[in-house]
Amino acid sequence: MSLRSKVITLYKNLLHLGKDWPTGYDFFRHRLHKAFTKNKDVNDPEEIKKLIKHGEFVQKEIEALYMLKKYRTLKRRYNIGNNSPQQIRKPYKA
Predict the structure, then answer these.
(1) Is residue 27 one of the residues assigned to a domain?
(2) DSSP characters over 4-66
(3) Are 21 and 27 within 8 A, CB to CB?
(4) Fewer C-beta within 10 Å: the chain N or C terminus?
């Protein structure tokens, strides 16, 4: 896979992740575009590979952030206060 196609794939993946960004898709898209255009004149293949690795790191961090957000939401939804579901259940009386 050429470096150009890797950069385009990374941009598309990050753009897709931006749909759930807390401050909005437009804000994320603008910042992403600005970050990529800042490095548009880089021609050294080693520097491009370094930037791609950094972009992949950012992508993994965003994915981890979303997973943590979902986990916290589920935890909040199913744990009332500090009580676990086992503590909430009342004993069964026949």
Answers:
(1) yes
(2) HHHHHHHHHHHHHHGGG-TT-HHHHHHHHHHHHHHTTT---HHHHHHHHHHHHHHHHHHHHHH
(3) yes
(4) C
Query: Per-residue pLDDT for the chain (94 aa), expressed as one digit of tens each?
Result: 899 999 999 999 999 999 988 889 999 999 999 999 999 999 999 999 999 999 999 999 999 999 988 888 888 888 756 655 555 566 677 6
- Which residue, 53, 69, 72, is CA-closest to 17? 69
Q: How far apart are CA 79 and CA 94, in angstroms?
A: 27
Longest distance between any two alpha carbons in the chain, whole Å:
77
Q: What is the DSSP letter of 92?
A: P
Residue 49 falls inside a structural domain: yes
Separation CA 61–CA 74 (nearest Å): 20
The range of the structural domain enclosing residue 29 comes to 3-88
Helix pair angle (3-17, 25-38), 10° resolution: 160
pTM for the model stands at: 0.73
